[in-house]
Amino acid sequence: MKKLISLLLVLAMALALVACGASEPAATEAPKADAPAAAPEAPAAEVTTYDVGVAIYQYNDNFMTLYRQEIEAYFKTLETDTVKYNVTMVDSKNDMAEQTNQIDTFITQGMDVIILNLVQTSSAEVLIDKVVAAGIPCILINREPLGDNGDESYPGIINNPTVCYVGADARQSGTMQGNLILALDNKGDLNGDGVVKYIMVIGDPENPDAQYRTEKSIQAMTDAGVAVECLVENVGNWDQTKGQEITAAALAQFGDEIEVVFCNNDGMALGAAASIEAAGRVVGEDIYLVGVDAIPEAIELIKNGAMTGTVLNDHIGQSHAAVDAAVAALNGEELQNYYWVDYVMVDAAYVAAN
Ligand code: GAL
User: What's the Cα-to-Cα distance from 176 to each of 133, 183, 193, 237, rounded to whole Å?
Assistant: First the structure.
């Protein structure tokens, strides 16, 4: 709970005050042993410490690692002499039962605000209900629970003024992935047969980020009148090793037929890049590869030509927006239902210019 600690800002000074420009006391004057020795006591400053609970769906995730580190760093920058944030961050290890226990513990500990990166968006209601019932504001991040129509009207968010979601619109990232391929002279059709053949490496199929990126990347292509054919669609759970395995298997099965590798995130794209290289294929020459996130390793690959492009999933913008929302809630300000941060298309030209 919020702690109010009184501190003395100014130590009493042991010097007697001497009027400016006053002359030295005459040698004959008796020392004023009983004169007041200290300045009037300064008013005590109050330090408010807020307890913040942060549950991250899984620490072992390239993008969420950058995100969670920035949450901690940004809270630090907002501290002042009188306001402190005591951040307790936990790894939910991709385990819903574990996360539920962690939220119960946060509630028992009396957190002042909770930042929650859900393990399963389908379990959002249970957790939100608990946190709201405990009177604690709840900032949902990164994994968006969708409303009944698959849109931004999740009841637990729109009906609770102390609950909000901070994130990026995954549809945008999917469309940008498609646009990265459309921007190529051949629009991805390397062999010129009129059909772009691709594989899709999917994140976590329960997660709207994965669903929308899978759908919208291809929709961008077909909306532009490009014919496509999916050779393989497989779940890699955002994981680099799985991305590598899926791509290796697809290359072994379909070889030169594969023209584009779409990965729902950069983690899996890093794995795909390794398999592409191991298969003797060359990105930009006989295959294309796109991801999402713009993690530093992916930017390096784009610089070296080993990835066609990615989409910046702005972990700085999102973590700051989440912390700002938490602070607003702590200050008793009204929260919006949703806070959105834009994605940015990242190709070789963008990397060279930034
Ligand atoms: C996505 C991100 C993925 C992964 C996922 C976790 O936004 O692109 O790399 O971190 O969130 O939910």
Answer: 40, 10, 24, 21
